[in-house]
Structures are given as structure tokens and as C-alpha cells.
Amino acid sequence: MENVAPDQARAALEAVERARSRVAEEVGLPRAYWWGMAVGWVVLGLIGDLGPQWLIIAATVTFGAGHAFVASRLLSGRRRTDQVHVSAAVAGRRIPIVVVGMLFALVALTIAVAMVLHSGGAGNPGIWAAVLVAAIIGFGGPDILRVLRRWFGA
Predict the structure, then answer these.
(1) Rounded to the nearest 10 degrees, what angle do helices 125-152 and 95-119 cross at?
(2) DSSP state of 151
(3) 33-45: buried (b, 16+ CB within 10 Å) or exposed (e) per residue?
(4) Is residue 117 a contact partner of residue 129, using CB atoms and an 8 Å limit?
(5) Rounded-to-10 torsion of CA 148, 151, 153, 154
(6) Are 26 and 80 spatial neighbours (Cβ–Cβ below 8 Å)?
(7) Residue ranges, the chain, pLDDT below 70
């Protein structure tokens, strides 16, 4: 290790950085997280259209608190498997911000779709909007997060 040429050292450091980047790209949220979110979305849609006001409020708060609890354990992305534990520096500190932004966009989409359905005279527009967005979350959540992470450098 005494006689390492500068170009060899540079090449080794670049190889390490490429490997770190590949590991960071693999960090994400498990598929069960996305389907759990989708189920919760549909339940909120059902309660929102069919339930009394107090239940809508309680369900929204419960869903938010439950998501915050689960997300606090998963959003760092550090425990994707039991075998690999990635440091927070490698996982990226912007992932929670990207996920929260994504959730706000999905809420806005749900509201917009429900308003369009309501204006068209559809019955239970909140349920239908929730089902549509839940399908987007369940099937596309990991891919959407991957793209958003790339866009925002998270």
C-alpha cells in the first residue's frame, strides 16, 4: 500500500463511489408498505363517503399517526433486508421529504379526481377517487419513488 500511484488511487475511489451509489439506489420501501398505504387509502375513501363526520376525523388522524409510526421506521430505507443495514449517509436524508411530497401530491390527486367525479354526478366520488389513487400507490409506488429520488437527488 505504500507505492500507490495517484491514478490507481483515483480509480479505486471512483469504484468505491460507484458501489456506494448502487447500494443507495437499492434502498427503498418494501412492497408491503405501498400496499398497506393503498388499503388505508381505500378505507379512508370509504369512511369519507359513508361515515359520520367524527369517524372521518378519527380515521384521518389514526391513518396519519399510523403512517408516521411506520414511516419513521422505514423511510430511512436502512433496513430493506435483514442481511444489509445501510448507514443513513448512504441511504440519503432526503427520502422522507420526497415521500411526504409524494403523499401530498397523491392527496391532491385524490381530491381533484373526487371533485371531477362529483361534478359529473358520480355516486360515492371519494371512494372511486381513493380506489384509483390506491391502485397507483400499490402498483406504482416503488417506481414513482425511484423516479422522484432521481429527480431530486435523494
Answers:
(1) 150
(2) H
(3) bbebbbebbbebb
(4) yes
(5) 0
(6) yes
(7) 1-2, 20-28, 75-93, 154
